[in-house]
Design brief:
Elements lengths: L11 E2 L12 E5 L4 E5 L12 E5 L4 E5 L10 E5 L4 E5 L2 E2 L2 E2 L3 E5 L1
Parallel strand pairs: 1-5
Antiparallel strand pairs: 2-3, 3-4, 4-5, 6-7, 7-10, 8-9
């Protein structure tokens, strides 16, 4: 496969696979670990995801992160540098709206 000169190659997950394409995830940049976390969302088959996957620019790779993620989409996320935690807020699940705040990643 020849990479387009106008678009960088997709980062690969550990094991060589790219991140699962998703709709309506949340993302937060973790400055301490120098990584961006993609949280939950919905895959191409409209299945809600309960995953946290981190992208490291240094290794140009995605890594699955163990967390207490809840299957949802249309949520928000933020990184708290003082607590060194990434939080997920609210969202929508198959059972309806979720109105919670939870720390997902340290």
């Amino acid at each position: 496969m020849v990479a387009s000169p106008h678009r960088a190659p997709r980062p690969r997950r550990e094991g060589g696979e790219p991140l699962t394409p998703r709709v309506a995830p949340a993302a937060a940049y973790d400055a301490k670990a120098n990584r961006t976390c993609a949280i939950d969302g919905e895959n191409a088959s409209s299945v809600l995801l309960a995953t946290v996957t981190a992208y490291s620019e240094g290794s140009n790779a995605w890594t699955a992160i163990t967390s207490d993620a809840v299957a949802r989409d249309y949520l928000a996320a933020a990184y708290d540098s003082a607590a060194d935690l990434t939080y997920a807020f609210d969202g929508a699940a198959s059972s309806g709206a979720i109105t919670t705040v939870g720390a997902l990643v340290q």
